[in-house]
Amino acid sequence: MTIDDALMRAEHLDEQGFKREIAVALFSQDRLTLARAAKLAGMAYMDFQALLADREICVHYGIEDLEQDLLTLLQRGLL
Fold first, then answer.
1. 36-57 b/e (C-beta count within 10 Å ≥ 16 → b)
2. Burial bucket for residue 18 (CB in 10 Å: 0-12, 13-18, 19+)
3. Does this model's pTM top 0.85?
4. What is the pLDDT of residues 9-25, one digit of tens each?
5. What pLDDT was estimated at residue 2?
6. Radius of gyration of the chain (CA)
7. Residue 19, Cβ density class (10 Å: 0-12 exposed, 13-18 middle, ≥19 buried)
8. What is the separation, in whole angstroms, between the first and last Cα of the chain?
9. Contact of 51 with 78, CB cutoff 8 Å
């Protein structure tokens, strides 16, 4: 599926902005984890959390998020 460029221009969105909006919507509906939504949005994990906070969207932190955080800490030698 392709999104009409005219629609994105009318909504003042570029491709990155559109992905960010989709990621926020899917996260809000519990259809994506925080890590996956941040990746879809093309944003760093903490930046995506800040975006959610700016929009007053609660962060859902589940087992998959914990596992991803632990893996990141292990990879960085912090655990």
1. bbbbbbebebeebbebbeeeee
2. middle
3. no
4. 656 678 888 899 999 99
5. 63
6. 14
7. middle
8. 43
9. no
How far is 34 from 23, CA to CA, in rounded Å?
9
35 is written with which tokens? 């890590």
Burial tier of 8 (Cβ tally within 10 Å: 0-12, 13-18, 19+) = middle
CB 37 within 8 A of CB 21: no
Residues for the chain: how many in total?
79
* Rounded mean pLDDT, 63-76: 88
CA angle, residues 22, 28, 34, in degrees to nearest 5:
85
Contact in structure between 38 and 48 (CB atoms under 8 Å): yes
